[in-house]
């Protein structure tokens, strides 16, 4: 393919990952109505819940021998139509990230820009052909084998096939829609979805009645501290499942703190 065709294909990968995330956000918004959380926290909570449900639904497709391209497009298309109002509502909460940035101090904005650069670089890696050991061995290899067979099955020759398959189902759906690089973009998006929830919950827990700005500062520092660590940052671009663990863990902790 020419350079222009490659760029268009890559852009299509990003659009498909955004579409899956939009559907997940819509599902989560429909299933869980809450007013005790900031919009930033709801971005993560609803996104995580929706991805979990979407994974289980796609797993049922696998049991029914429907791991096919047309079934994946049917699920995505009908899902976006059915949850269109909730999906738009979820994207309105996503806009709260911009509002938070606008009302942050100059140093906080500088930290936010650095964080944006770090995650953007990892997106470029995620959109490249996968070369990571985990991705080539099982995170993307197992979905490839599922799609070749057309259904969810045990792969006895792969010692990793007994692992939890929640994230692999999302990768299988993304690959059924287009290609492995689409799954890479989806893995990156799942990891980035951790950040608004972390920003929101740390800001809420750290702020006091007399100083709401202190809470926002703590939130930006929390995000920067997470991305400063090489492990989480590099996993964003490697089609791994650890970022999904971070996402679901962050959502559960937000709910647990509120319950306590």
List the helices and strands and how they pair.
Blueprint: H1 3-31, H2 39-63, H3 69-82, H4 84-94, H5 96-102, H6 106-126, H7 133-139, H8 141-149, H9 166-177, H10 180-192, H11 194-206, H12 212-228, H13 230-235, H14 242-259
Helix pairs in contact: 1-2, 1-4, 1-10, 2-4, 2-9, 2-11, 2-14, 3-9, 6-10, 6-12, 8-9, 9-10, 10-14, 11-12, 11-14
Basic shape: globular
Major sheet characteristics = none
Number of strand elements: 0
Instruction: Output mean pLDDT.
Output: 93
Total of DSSP H or I helical runs spanning 4+ residues? 14
Beta-strand content: under 5%
Helix content: over 70%
Order of helices and strands: HHHHHHHHHHHHHH
List keywords for this structure.
260 residues, mainly alpha
Structure, described:
By secondary structure, this protein is mainly α. Helices cover 78% and strands 0% of the residues. Helix 2 crosses helix 4 and helix 2 packs antiparallel against helix 11 (194-206). 42% of the residues are buried. The model has no long low-confidence stretch (mean pLDDT 93).
Short account of what is shown:
Helix content is 78%, strand content 0%. The protein has 14 helices and no strands.
């Amino acid at each position: 393919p020419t350079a222009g065709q490659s760029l268009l294909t890559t852009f299509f990968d990003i659009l498909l990952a955004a579409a899956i995330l939009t559907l997940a956000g819509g599902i989560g918004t429909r299933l869980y109505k809450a007013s005790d959380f900031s919009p930033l926290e709801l971005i993560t909570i609803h996104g995580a819940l929706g991805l979990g449900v979407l994974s289980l639904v796609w797993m049922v497709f696998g049991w029914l021998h429907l791991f096919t391209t047309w079934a994946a497009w049917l699920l995505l298309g009908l899902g976006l139509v059915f949850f269109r109002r909730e999906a738009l509502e979820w994207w309105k909460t996503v806009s709260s990230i911009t509002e938070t940035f606008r009302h942050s101090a100059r140093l906080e904005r500088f930290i936010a820009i650095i964080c944006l650069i770090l995650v953007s670089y990892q997106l470029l890696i995620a959109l490249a052909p996968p070369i990571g050991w985990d991705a080539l061995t099982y995170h993307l290899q197992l979905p490839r084998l599922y799609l070749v067979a057309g259904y969810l099955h045990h792969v006895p020759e792969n010692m990793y096939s007994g692992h939890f398959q929640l994230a692999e189902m999302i990768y299988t759906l993304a690959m059924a829609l287009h290609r492995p690089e689409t799954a890479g973009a989806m893995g990156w998006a799942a990891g980035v979805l951790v950040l608004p929830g972390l920003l929101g919950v740390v800001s809420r827990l750290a702020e006091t009645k007399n100083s709401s700005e202190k809470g926002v500062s703590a939130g930006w520092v929390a995000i920067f501290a997470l991305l400063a660590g090489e492990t989480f940052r590099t996993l964003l671009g490697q089609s791994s499942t650890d970022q999904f663990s971070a996402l679901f863990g962050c959502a559960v902790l937000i709910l647990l703190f509120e319950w306590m």
